[in-house]
Amino acid sequence: MNQKVSTAIFLILVMGQIHAQQLDAPEEIARETTIEAIGDYAQFAPTAFSLITVLAKGDEEGFWQLGKSVGANLTATWIMKYAINKPRPEGRTDGHAFPSGHTSFAFQGASFLQRRYGWKYGIPAFAVAAYVAYSRIEGVNDRHDGWDVLGGALTGIASTYLFTTPYMKEHFDMSFQSGDGTYALGVIYKF
Q1: Number of domains in the chain
Q2: What is the DSSP string of 47-98?
Q3: Is 27 inside a domain boundary?
């Protein structure tokens, strides 16, 4: 009976070691490094595309709203990182895991595009932001957990919704109708 228990413990330890080695296999490290590197660059894509869109449309109001949203997001993210000082999942001692800065920046840009210009712009931007959030959890050394990326996403979205209004090129709309000797002139102002 004692030998069976020893054999079972030995097999559990050996299987655990094999599983641990599979997690740290070179292929796995290369895959996680690639995921994290893409996320490092992709975090800038939604905000960069927001800036390009604002400039292409000549949207001066949107330019200032984007600037305020970015500033509020970066400020809120860094204040929370240092005030909360949550440790990182893999045990690094630098702390400051909550909220994920990469995720908050990506979601701020994505939510700006969606809020200002609609879902036609927002859906691809949110797909990129979701990948950035995934890269923070799945990348090498698992820099963040689900709470960190959720906090980052909410921080980015909230900072946008504080300052951003939907884009309307024309604020005035006029209509004219006539018939049977009557005439009607309509003026609509959109806020």
Answers
A1: 1
A2: HHHHHHHHHHHT-HHHHHHHHHHHHHHHHHHHHHHHHH-PPPTT--TT---S
A3: no
